[in-house]
Recover the amino acids of this structure.
């Protein structure tokens, strides 16, 4: 069956300037520019966010710890493509998300994972994601106010702003602390 | 500030608030119906932003009128008859298709950009401050809607045709955003609001550049004098009735 959806983009957000970008989910969009805007609307409605990245899902090369255990780390020397920077994201726990770990130079996805494994260590890594840096579309510093400001100062966008929740709890006869 | 001027400025702000409120209501009607899930959420966000801006203008108006800024906005929204709303007709028109709604939002966002840039220099400090803050949010709106206008205008023959039909209907109506009133002239002379003619030419330059770059033709009609803000289509009455329905079930209910 043909997929009639728009292409999928993985979304990474950064909560504080000193924290790594973390995968929060995916959006569909016709292109990277709109993917960034959709990401803002879908994932930055309430929480703090200072920066957003989107990457086309089909440009992300993924390798799991099981795959590496089965077939080993890919050889680093398969020089097919051009040497280019890849961003590395590592998922370290089953409940955790992919977190930005750093960048490596490589000629392909598999060699980027190999490079990353030697650089950042295999321990605790459950899933590796590597994506060519040029495929990543980022929010710019001058967009921070317009992209992320409204979520902060519009309390009525948060359901906790509406007292009906507390009223419902009272109706049910439950003290607030138990909720 | 003289009492007359205060009242004129309050009315000016209520008209701006009405534009935002009615457009927010129309935008919110897309919730659950937009063509794509992501865009559904985006449009709901735009609606919430416009609602926040309406609230900001109504609060400023309430202060000028010596009314309670917490309560008066509700009074204006839920207890005013439709005939007393001062929004432009463009925002009260039914949503139509996606092209129509997107283009309307774009034309409105562009008008906000030029108006807010002017209001940021208002002699009224509270107004200037609010304009600066709202303008930051509107930058995102304009980026989002102009990205869509570009894609629909330059997309397929069908999307271009739908955009052109929407533009033919909306453009003459949009000019009402800049209709001059006597009190507005006095406010401009006092340095409280920007001159309407400057706004109009800045808006025309902005949207004409964008739209012609998207293979869209600007309809004639700049010369015709738009009607005042007290004239409405029958659509407003229906919208306001629905908007006020719950509030009017029980006056003074706490919620």
């Amino acid at each position: 069956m043909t997929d009639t959806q728009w292409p999928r983009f993985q979304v990474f957000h950064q909560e504080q300037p000193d924290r790594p970008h973390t995968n929060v989910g995916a959006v569909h969009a016709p292109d990277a520019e709109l993917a960034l805007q959709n990401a803002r609307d879908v994932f930055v409605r309430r929480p703090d966010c200072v920066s957003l990245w989107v990457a086309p899902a089909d440009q992300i090369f993924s390798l799991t710890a099981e795959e590496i255990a089965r077939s080993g780390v890919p050889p680093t020397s398969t020089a097919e493509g051009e040497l280019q920077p890849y961003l590395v994201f590592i998922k370290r726990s089953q409940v955790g998300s992919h977190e930005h770990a750093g960048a490596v130079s490589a000629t392909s996805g598999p060699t980027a994972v190999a490079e990353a494994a030697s650089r950042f260590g295999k321990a605790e890594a459950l899933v590796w994601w590597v994506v060519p840096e040029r495929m990543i579309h980022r929010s710019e510093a001058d967009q921070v106010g317009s992209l992320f400001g409204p979520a902060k100062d519009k309390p009525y966008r948060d359901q906790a702003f509406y007292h009906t929740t507390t009223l419902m709890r009272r109706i049910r006869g439950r003290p607030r602390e138990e909720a | 500030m003289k009492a007359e001027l205060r009242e004129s400025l309050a009315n000016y702000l209520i008209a701006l608030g009405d534009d935002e409120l009615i457009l927010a209501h129309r935008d919110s009607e897309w919730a659950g119906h937009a063509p794509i899930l992501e865009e559904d959420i985006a449009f709901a966000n735009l609606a919430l932003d416009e609602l926040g801006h309406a609230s900001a203008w109504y609060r400023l108006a309430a202060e000028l009128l010596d009314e309670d800024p917490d309560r008066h906005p509700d009074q204006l929204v839920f207890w005013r008859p439709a005939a007393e709303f001062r929004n432009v007709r463009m925002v009260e028109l039914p949503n139509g298709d996606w092209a129509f709604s997107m283009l309307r939002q774009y034309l409105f966002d562009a008008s906000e950009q030029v108006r807010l840039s002017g209001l940021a220099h208002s002699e009224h400090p509270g107004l200037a401050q609010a304009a600066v803050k709202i303008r930051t949010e509107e930058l995102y709106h304009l980026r989002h809607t102009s990205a869509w206008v570009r894609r629909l205008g330059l997309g397929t023959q069908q999307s271009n045709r739908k955009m052109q039909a929407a533009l033919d209907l909306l453009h003459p109506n949009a000019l009402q955003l800049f209709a001059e009133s006597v009190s507005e002239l006095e406010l401009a002379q006092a340095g409280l609001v920007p001159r309407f003619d400057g706004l109009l030419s800045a808006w025309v330059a902005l949207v004409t550049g964008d739209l012609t770059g998207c293979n869209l033709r600007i309809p004639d009609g700049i010369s015709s004098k738009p009607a005042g803000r007290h004239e409405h289509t029958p659509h407003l009455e229906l919208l306001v009735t629905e908007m006020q329905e719950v509030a009017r079930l029980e006056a003074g209910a706490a919620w």
